[in-house]
Amino acid sequence: MIKRGDKMNFKKWISLCCMAFSLTLAVPIAASATGTPEAETEPAAPVQTNGWSEDHTYYLQDGKKITGVHQLSDGYYYFFDGSGTLLTGRQGYVRYNKAAYFVKPDGTLLRNSWGKTDGNYYYAGDSAKLHTNTAARIGGKIYCFNTKSVKLTNGLKKIKGNTYLLAASGAAKTGIQLYNGKRYFFNTSNGRMMKNRKIKYNGKLFFATTKGPLVTGWKQVGDKTYYADSKGRLKTGWQTYQGKRYYFNQRTGALRSGWVNIDGRYYYYTPSGSVKTGWFKVGKNTYYGTPSGPLKGARLIEFQRIGGKRYLFNTRGVLLTGWQNRNGHRYYMDSKGVVTTGWRKIKSQWYFFESSGAMKTGWLVHNGNFYYMNPKTGAMTTGRKTIGGQTYTFASSGIYTQRTLSGSWVVKVNRAANVITVYKGNIPVKAFLCSTGMDNATPLGTFSIRDKLWRHELNGPTWGYFCSHITDDILFHSIPAPTTERTAVPSYKFNMLGQQASQGCIRLAMGDAKWLYDTVPVGSTVVVYDDASYPGPLGRPANFKMNEDPVYYYDPTDPIAYPSYSTSK
Predict the structure, then answer these.
(1) Rounded to two decimals, what is the model's pTM?
(2) Which end of the chain is more exposed for a tag (fewer CB within 10 A), N or C?
(3) All domains of the chain in start order, with CATH
(4) Cβ contact 217:232 at 8 Å
(5) CA 14, CA 32: separation in Å to the nearest integer?
(6) Percentage above 90 pLDDT, the chain
């Protein structure tokens, strides 16, 4: 209970408090009314709208927390979760907006470098995105990454339809690689396995199959055929397989078929690719391919001796039959293409063909008998005939019986024309092509046949057959060969008949040398003279060439290898 005195004191205290409160409210109002300066106060802190929070756990942009992946002003990339909180304190793979990233413990994202977690390797590019389901060149090597961005290693791996061969380090192998017993080729620029295509690598050709392994052995690709060795290298040029010769295009490696021009010579290949040799037909035409040697299969042209018989092919290699003209001479080939020599009856007319096959015209001396062959047609003359203003009578056999061979044998050598004409008395009987000495090494003048040597050693040493000296150093002989074998005649020397080629001796074809050896006796006169404008009364004999493959073989006029054709009618 409060006493009266105390009650009075309490009332005074209440009054003082009320007065004080009133003054507190009144002073600022009065101050405002009278213009008295306001007392100074502490300013309020500004509201933050951009930048990191004080605890570095979120980042404001225009007053709002950012989320997802952002590159900030410091150049680093960061990842903020859906609430805007920076992801820190962990390391590893995260996905955001269909892309993959690698977060480091400090909250920054991996960029232009490798990252590893749980034994897996990752690589982030310049935008901090991880390489995903792709192949990428990193530090000069190619690496592959799966759909979860993990680097792949060891063996064949397929990325977006392309196949790569990866090492244990993950680096893709390039070039030719052996894997599980098969060879593959991987592009040297991007590491991809090459398939169903031709490849040129280190100067060699390869062909990758549709599944990737390189072709070995025979391979048909479309309408092309290829052959590769055990290392996948496609064969080009000439190749021999199981005894058969094939030619593969030098540029593409494809097996050639049909007619193929190789170094100026033509070859015919069957659809299976083997070259035709010997006799063969293409359509209605007959051809002959060289049977062996380095030019095996080469199509023969012009005059050729095959199996002891001579044939004529045109420049396209087609075997010719019937009448044909060559180098100013006329020839006749039978239905099988064989060049006719000696007497031949053609459509009721008789003709005579020299050993070269050239048709004889004008006067003919054969087996001691005289005949006259029409100068234009070559047909044998019978009955009465005016020749050079004089009338002659020829029997039904064609023989002119009122003229016989008599007198001595004379051999005239036209050095300038390289033609020999043999006379019996004053009648020209035979003419041969020869080779006199280079630079006119064969002396001019009148000589005689001194001896008969069946075989004789010449310079070199070389050997000649059917030899006859006319001086101590100069003699008639066959084409010189490097051995005594009759099969060793150099084709190129035979083919030089008709031009100067010797060291001074007088070379003849084997058959002509034998005729001279057998017919003209020792002591007969030999005259060497020059007349380039007139080869002789019997003209310049036809020349034919010896096959140059092989280089050494029988002289095509050698009676040992090729018995003389019958010359009787």
Answers:
(1) 0.55
(2) N
(3) 51-130 (2.10.270.10), 280-394 (2.10.270.10), 409-553 (2.40.440.10)
(4) no
(5) 28
(6) 60
